[in-house]
Specification:
heterodimer, A: mainly alpha, 13 helices, about 0% strand, B: about 450 residues
């Protein structure tokens, strides 16, 4: 019994939260990785693009709520996400036209493009804060829990409860659907293959008649879709605050690099690597060992490897270690 | 000659703008803008050495700034004897342990060839070291933080004059840069950018949460100053006379004695803040000029030529027998040390150390905007960038207010849209920075004052 209790404890506090956080990071990491592979620069606007998409999702959610439209037990935001995506797509395409295309045709070095993306980061951040303000916003509605701790305890008769929030399940389901569609698109369709070819060797791809404009446009569209979905899911699960989203850029980059930047599948797994390690290292295992060990050698400390304040530091340290020993990432990067 | 005229004109315009602020807003505001412009200028010089001279991207400026600030605390705050008594010994032991770990890792790396066994050995050293550190430091940290937590709760510093911290800050930042450089300098440009950005976040996390060292988010306030305090000045005979002399005209106009005295008192209070800021501005100017002379000399020395050669063509420089790795490390350390000086200067000026206020937007990306806008590779350009961008950063709010009022003048006062825009004025500075950076990168990619390329 104690063993089952211990397992449920870990499931509740580590596995379920890490899985949903990891999915949100993974969505971000995939599009950073795609942009790196195809457009060939580090896209520093990542976090703010996510907040841009989420902001419009929130605005549409509010609009639908004012009209009285809702999805019943599901959050209204799910209905608003497609509209948020459309606005975000328009925004990134406009940005590409006004800003990035100039440097691409000039074949500027990647560093310069990264600097330019810092410029767009400032602008995007300003737009988000001017439109919706810097405050913390919750836009979740509908049924909050799928499984409550008390219900679980009654059901199983265990001491430990297992809570599953509906946002966590939604996150996981949406991520699975989106990522499978994406990989199907990249691996099976002609356009997807041409994107991979372009990423692999630009000159060769151009020679074989691949239209670079189309490839770039589709990359941006995918980026906008993933950014909006990832951002909206994160906002549903936790809350929307522009500053947090900007900060999320860092673990997203960490995930993309750990997975091997330029490799979307690596980035997808990298998201989970980062999320799990952040939560595993900062969790206090005291209760877990109390269940497992006999009473006589029960631990008296918290048994926490690092305090939760160092959550970010953990993922970054992993990144540094990966960079040192396998600079191309766990799953060799730059192959797509 | 024309280039020199450009430089002079740009600086005259910049100083003119600051003086204009003095006339329009107040001299106190103008001088604090000037002080922060000077601090920013030091930071941009540091970043410019790395980026402009050597083409190294360092997105970790925030970390070095914070370390410089930490140096100011550790140098100037008097030591907390009680805390040292309860936990000092253990902390010193920890320092030795860390040194021991570093040396044993170095020993392993030197002695054995690259293999899995070596990696396991290093991992073993690190893990046992961390466990030991944890065991030794935990009780010590707890007892240190328990020493009157409302006022101290940390080890304190050395109690030396705060000016020393400018040098110590440089050493701290340089030391960190040495470690980071050893780890990360081999990476490609954009990896290096991301790695340094993330490492600087780790530095901030440590400073924020190691309360025994820096008091963390509880902040350290009331740091000593290298210049006189306003309160002291207001009671000094010579200062009151000086203020009276400066404002003779205004004072003579008033005949009533009590009114005259009141005006004088007000003038002395205003004058004291301006005087203190003037002193700071003088100190900072001295630092900027010294650094400028040194960096200019370095830029046009054989060493500077070599650095530019490495920047422009690494392989060719390598083929000519220049040790690229070593020079990159050197310049990474030097540039970061200069940023560390700026960090210490800033904390000295503020008189307080707030680890929570270090954000990458303000301390990393804004500095990069300064370098790019000013002109990378050119020290005068970098300093001008620091001035211009900081000026815009501070004055963005009044400018935005003016523009909003101008464009929405057709709308009525209580119009929801207008009120919303006016409420979000603070965020227009980001918009201005972003658009400014994009415009400069597009139409003047070498910055306002581009690098001078001397053809022989």
């Amino acid at each position: 019994m104690d063993i089952i209790n211990a397992i449920v404890l870990l499931l509740n506090y580590i596995f379920v939260p890490a899985l949903s956080y990891g999915s949100q990071l993974a969505l971000g990491a995939i599009f950073v990785s795609l942009i790196y592979g195809i457009l060939r620069f580090a896209y520093f606007t990542a976090g703010d693009l996510m907040s841009f998409g989420t902001m419009f999702t929130i605005l549409f959610t509010w609009y639908f709520q004012s009209l009285g439209i809702s999805l019943g037990i599901l959050p209204t935001a799910l209905l608003a996400i497609p509209f948020g995506i459309i606005v975000t797509i328009l925004y990134v395409l406009l940005k590409d036209k006004l800003v990035f295309s100039y440097y691409r045709t000039k074949k500027s070095p990647p560093v310069q493009l990264a600097m330019v993306s810092i410029g767009t980061m400032f602008v995007t951040q300003a737009i988000v804060r001017i439109i919706i303000g810097p405050f913390d916003r919750r836009f979740f509605d509908g049924e909050k829990f799928i499984l409550k701790a008390n219900e679980f305890k009654e059901m199983t008769g265990l001491n430990e409860g297992l809570t599953i929030k509906s946002t966590q399940v939604i996150t996981l389901l949406v991520t699975i659907i989106v990522v499978s569609i994406l990989f199907w698109f990249l691996n099976k369709t002609k356009t997807g293959k041409s994107m991979r070819a372009y990423s692999d060797n630009e000159d060769l791809a151009l020679l074989s008649g691949i239209d670079p404009k189309k490839v770039v446009m589709i990359t941006w569209v995918i980026a906008a879709i993933l950014a909006t979905i990832g951002g909206a899911l994160y906002g549903l699960d936790k809350s929307f605050k522009p500053f947090t989203y900007f900060n999320n850029m860092l673990p997203i980059f960490a995930a993309a690099i750990v997975g091997g930047i330029g490799n979307p599948f690596g980035a997808f797994l990298g998201g989970y690597v980062i999320a799990f390690s952040e939560i595993l290292v900062t969790y206090a295992y005291r209760k877990f060992f109390i269940y497992l060990l006999p009473e006589s050698i029960e631990p008296d400390g918290l048994l926490q490897l690092l305090s939760t304040d160092y959550k970010f530091a953990v993922s970054f340290s992993i990144l540094v270690v990966v960079l040192l020993f396998r600079p191309s990432g766990i799953f060799k990067g730059k192959v797509l | 000659m024309r280039e020199n005229l450009n430089v002079i004109a740009a600086y005259v315009i910049m100083l003119g703008l600051i003086i204009l602020v003095g006339f329009l807003q107040s001299w106190s505001v103008a001088l604090s803008i000037l002080c922060f412009c000077l601090i920013s200028a030091v930071m941009t010089m540091g970043a410019n050495i790395q980026w402009g001279y050597a083409g190294l991207i360092n997105f970790g400026i925030m970390g070095y700034t914070a370390l410089g600030g930490l140096a100011a605390v550790l140098v100037s705050v008097p030591p907390v004897r009680e805390a040292w008594q309860v936990g000092g010994l253990n902390m010193i032991l920890c320092a030795f342990l860390i040194a021991l770990m570093v040396f044993s890792i170095r020993f392993i790396i030197k002695k054995y060839n690259k293999s899995n066994k070596r990696n396991y050995g290093i991992a073993l050293v690190i893990i046992t070291g961390l466990v030991l550190l944890r065991l030794i430091s935990e009780p010590a940290i707890e007892s240190i933080e328990a020493v009157s937590p409302a006022t101290t709760g940390f080890l304190g510093g050395m109690g030396l004059p705060i000016l020393f911290s400018w040098i110590v800050g440089a050493f701290f930042a340089g030391g960190l840069a040495y470690v980071i450089g050893k780890i990360a300098l081999g990476l490609r440009a954009d990896y290096l950018a991301i790695a340094t950005l993330l490492i600087s976040e780790i530095v901030i996390a440590v400073i924020k949460h190691e309360d025994w060292l820096s008091r963390g988010v509880k902040n350290v306030i009331g740091l000593k100053r290298p210049v006189p305090y306003e309160i002291d000045l207001q009671n000094k005979e010579w200062f009151i006379n000086l203020v009276a002399k400066f404002n003779q005209g205004a004072l003579n106009l008033i005949t009533d004695i009590t009114e005259k005295e009141q005006l004088l008192k007000q003038l002395v209070i205003d004058g004291s803040t301006v005087f203190v800021k003037l002193c700071f501005a003088g100190l900072f100017t001295a630092v900027v000029i010294t650094l400028l002379i040194i960096t200019q000399k370095a830029l046009y020395s054989p060493w500077g030529r070599m650095m530019r050669a490495i920047r422009d063509n690494e392989e060719a420089a390598n083929a000519m027998g220049k040790n690229v790795v070593k020079q990159h490390l050197l310049i990474f350390v030097l540039g970061s040390a200069i940023v560390g000086i700026a960090g210490a200067m800033m904390v000295t000026y503020d008189g307080l150390f707030t680890p929570g206020s270090y954000r990458p937007m303000r301390y990393t990306f804004l500095i990069w905007v300064m370098v790019i806008v000013g002109g990378s590779g050119n020290n005068f350009g970098a300093i001008l960038g620091g001035f211009a961008v900081w000026f815009l950063w501070i004055e963005a709010a009044p400018i935005a207010l003016f523009l909003i009022n101008f464009f929405t003048s057709g709308l009525e006062e209580a119009n929801a849209f207008r009120v919303h825009l006016i409420d979000s004025i603070p965020y227009f500075r980001y918009l201005m920075m972003g658009i400014g950076l994009l415009l400069i990168m597009r139409y003047r990619p070498k910055g306002i004052l581009p690098e001078k390329i001397r053809h022989v």
